[in-house]
Structure formats: C-alpha cells, structure tokens
Amino acid sequence: MDAIAESQNKGKGRAVVTSLIREYYSNARNLAPQSVEKREFGIGTFDAKILYRHLSFGSEDALKAYLSSKAPPYVSYSAAYYKHPGKRPMENKLWEGSELVFDLDVTDMHLPCQSLHGRAWVCGTCLSSVKAETIKLIEEFLMPDFGLSDSEISVNFSGNRGYHVHVNNNALLGLSAKARSEISSYISGAGIDATLFFPTAGQRGVRLVGPKPTDKGWAGKMARAFLANLNIGAEKLAALGISPQLAKNLYKKRALIEMGIRNGNWDMIYIPNKAEFWKGILKNQAVSQSDKIDRNVTRDPSHLIRLPGSIHGDTGLIAMKIGKSPALEGFDPMSSAIAFRKGEVACVANTKESLTFNSSEFGPYKNEAVTLPMYVGVYLFLKGFAEIREAHI
Ligand SMILES: [Zn+2]
Question: Measuring CA to CA, how many Å separate 29 from each of 24, 61, 81, 310, 316?
C-alpha cells in the first residue's frame, strides 16, 4: 500500500473525508492553472502537506484523473513555469519564470482574539482581519506603487486562514529571488528610516516638515496611516504608544493637525521630544501595515502553493478563486468556500468556541455527540475538534 492510501486508512474520519474529496475532484471543473503543462505539482497526505513533488500533468484531464483517483487532502503547484516540470533535481526542470505570489496568513498577524481562542482556532475576526490585510496589499502597494492593474492580480482564499495573491505580469516573471526579496521587504516596511521623511527634525526653532498624504510610496502611506489613526480616536492613538493625555489632546485638535499634515506641516501641536515621538509613531504604523507577508513564499521562485480550486485538508474548504476587489470585499469563506454541502455527519465534538458556518452558529460543544451538516463536522474533524462516527450522505 502506498503512503497516500495508508494515511487515508487511519480511522473512520479520514475514510469519510477521502471519499468526499474523491467525489469533489470527479465533479470539479477548471482545476488546471494557466499553462498546466509547465507547472510542477505536489501532493500531501493527512500526515504531511507536501509528501510528493516533481509531479507534472500534460493536460487538465490528466490532472483531474490523478486527483480523482488519489483523492489527496492537499494539492500544491508551482508559481513557476518550467520547460520540464517533472524532472529533477530542480536545475533540470529549466525555469522559465515565476508568478509573484504573496501568502497572507492569519498566523502571521498578532490579533487580540488569537490570545483568547488560541492559534489553532480561526474566528470571524481572524478571517476579516486577514482579508483587510489582503485588500491593503493590493490597494496600498501592488496597484499604486507597482503600477499593476486589476487584471494582472488574482486572489484566492487559501482554503484555511488566509489569502494568496498572484501577480501575473510578463515583466515580473523573470525576477530573481533577490529582487523578489526586495519587493517583500518594501511591503513589510523593513529598513524604512522614518527620519528621512522629516528633513528638519531635531533643528531647534525650525518647523517640522514631513510627508503629505498625497506623496508617493511609503511617505504618503505613513501620512495617510497617521491621519486614519488620528481620526479613529484617542484610544487608538494611545494603543500606538502615545500617553493617554497627549492622545486626548491630539484627538481634540485633530482638524488643525490634519490641515497641517495635508500641507506637509507636522508642527501643529507642541509635543516634547517630537522628532522621536513622530518617528516612534511612524515606525508603529509601518509595522502595523506590514510584517504579515510570509516572505518565503514571495521570495522563493520555486515555492509550491495551494492549487486554486483544490480542497484544503485542514478544513475541507475550497482554496477558492475570487474575482477582483469588490468580490473580495464581500467574500466569506465560511459560506462561499464550502465544498461538502450534501449530507450530515454524526460526531463527538469538543470546542470552546462556537463557529459561524453558512450564516448559522454551531457550538460550543462539550465533548458531546452531535449530528452536524457534513461541512461543519468535516471542518471540526480536520481541525482536531471532533471525531467522526457515521456519515449520512
Ligand atoms: Zn480570531
């Protein structure tokens, strides 16, 4: 027995999920990425997310036949195009270029809800936060700073707790790992020196000149981010490390401050140690705008990433292709990315939190026997919060 079949044979739950995955791939359409014959594929078992790689398929039919027969819980493909994607070692594949890919995952974010529910659980706030981050990547960086258009950017739900952004632009296909790494650093704000945006900082009696919201690149981003936080309220400012009294003062004078900043004048209010103070704030803004890109995915041109349209073995959800920005804003993976809509499953579930699926709330469950819609039972089983006893399809 091969490792895939062996992993699938462990326990009732895996057997149920395997048969659902098999049925899903037998009926799936549009599984092949662009230029399928030039991509390397990898598949995983319940025990290892990428167990085999260096696979290649000459056509969508060949890919579909393989997935329907093996029913693997994880399928990845290369952002790279190769002349011989199935050859090994890597040098023999003959690299022809790679899409630029960004992997935004809630585990890279530091959210207050995560300390309440733990990192193994993904709540609605987690999902909406990582979606906002994805929109920010596209609207604050890829489009304005890199000049990319809507049609060159595609987004898909990762299938678990994040989003993948693929850039398909001919001029970027040939970028080296070093150039990709620089793009990643720029987006994560690494190495940004805030003092450069304040040329008069530290000069006594001289007006503090700083970035305007209309400036290009990071200068404008910092000004806009500061104004956005200023207008949210004193609490938000205090959360950025400003003393509560000063935060109140800034918020009270926000109209005056905003007017100044719009003209590049950051001197509208007296603040002790102002250069350091602004620097600190801006540094904070930079980190909160960044630090969430999984750098390895972006910088490594041979990385394998979840195949859009495939099932994610941690959730039973579809790593779903999403349309352009308005579609992303309204996208709810816990409704739209459901794969196993038919049937129910009897399980024993144990969760501290409830979860919202398809606009209904489930749980919490205290180690109790429950019959759930198939997609809910499978999700909890794959996340380790339920055991499957019996499936009714
Ligand atoms: Zn959360």
Answer: 10, 10, 22, 10, 17
- The tens digit of pLDDT for each residue in 116-144 reads 998 889 999 999 989 988 888 888 889 99
CA–CA separation, 87 and 38 (whole Å) = 11
Distance 151 CA to ligand 1 centre (A): 31
345 and 332 in a common domain: no
Show the low-confidence residues of the chain (pLDDT under 50): 286-295
Q: In this predicted model, what pLDDT tens digit does every residue of 172-209 receive, in sequence order? A: 999 998 998 888 888 877 777 777 888 887 788 888 88
358 close to 338: Cβ distance less than 8 angstroms: yes
Q: Ligand 1 centre and the CA of 123: distance in Å?
A: 4
CA angle 211, 214, 215 (to 5 degrees): 50
In degrees, rounded to 5, the angle at the alpha carbon of residue 372 between the alpha carbons of residues 73 and 329 is 65
Q: How far apart are CA 310 and CA 329, in angstroms?
A: 22
pLDDT of residue 393: 82
Task: Indicate the number of domains in the chain.
Answer: 3
Same domain, 238 and 320: no
Stated pTM of the model: 0.87
Q: How far is the CA of 133 from the centre of ligand 1 (A)?
A: 14
Q: State the pLDDT at residue 10.
A: 65
Q: Which residues surround ligand 1, an ion (CB under 5 A)?
A: 113, 123, 125-126
**How many angstroms separate the alpha carbon of residue 345 from the centre of ligand 1?**
26
- 189 domain-assigned: no
